[in-house]
């Protein structure tokens, strides 16, 4: 998941489904973040 994708979802939250996708993307991005950056 790229930050551009995250920003695109954040800019266009059309409905609850998109919001759920956004949260899933953020969770994946956070999980992929090295521990020293958390």
Question: What are the salient characteristics of this protein?
Answer:
elongated; single chain; 0% strand; 38 residues; mainly alpha
Sequence-ordered SSE layout with sheet pairings:
Blueprint: H1 3-11, H2 16-31
Helix pairs in contact: 1-2
Could you explain how this protein is built, in words?
The protein has 38 residues and is mainly α. The protein has one domain. The chain contains two helices and no strands. The protein has helices at 3-11, 16-31. Helix 1 (3-11) packs antiparallel against helix 2. The protein starts with a helix and ends in a 7-residue tail after the last helix. The model has no long low-confidence stretch (mean pLDDT 77).
Radius of gyration of CA atoms, rounded to a whole number: 11 Å
Strand content: under 5%
**Largest sheet report:** none
How far from one another are the termini? 17 Å
Total number of domains: 1
The helix/strand class is mainly alpha
How many helices? The count is 2
Q: Any idea what the shape is?
A: elongated
| Oligomeric state of shown chains | single chain
Q: Approximately how much helix is present in the residues? A: 55-70%
Low-confidence stretches: none
Mean pLDDT: 77
How many β-strand stretches? Answer: 0
- How would you spell out the order of helices and strands? HH
Short précis:
With 38 residues, the chain is an all-alpha fold.
């Amino acid at each position: 998941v790229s930050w551009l994708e995250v920003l695109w979802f954040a800019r266009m939250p059309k409905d609850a489904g998109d919001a759920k996708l956004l949260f899933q993307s953020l969770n994946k991005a956070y999980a992929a973040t090295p521990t020293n950056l958390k």
